[in-house]
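Translate sequence into structure tokens.
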Amino acid sequence: MRREKSASSCRDGARYAVINMSKPSNFDTYAYQDSAGNIYPSIAEYTRTRLSGVDKMVISTTPTTYYSVTGTGTTANCKIQVFLCDMTQMQASPPVATPDTTKTSWNGPTFSFGDRLAVAVSGTYTPVLPNFLLMGATIPVNMIVTMGAE
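Result follows.
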């Protein structure tokens, strides 16, 4: 498994999220079509495609389902979350990226300058030959990237 690919896909997803703050609040899992007919994949779909196959190896017991503009659902193997960070926890030492339960949405009027948005990918990786490589039978994968809005 490529750790760089997972981190890069989270970073790409977070960047995609912050530049699409004007999209509807369900844009984290639902694709959006604007009045000109342009289709924007949901943040979850965008992030999953950036995983380039790594998502097939990272399995979650609560995988994310994302939807096309026609309402067709596709389930990723991993869990992909988009949330506003609790700024109190972000200013702790060390910082912890946890959802802000006081905000109702990852975007919209509740987001203010200085807030951080996070995209997280999580699941469990099972190596093909764990004993041969002296690894555990499973390896937890938790990648979180935070960014400020633009």
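Note: Residues 3-148 form one domain.
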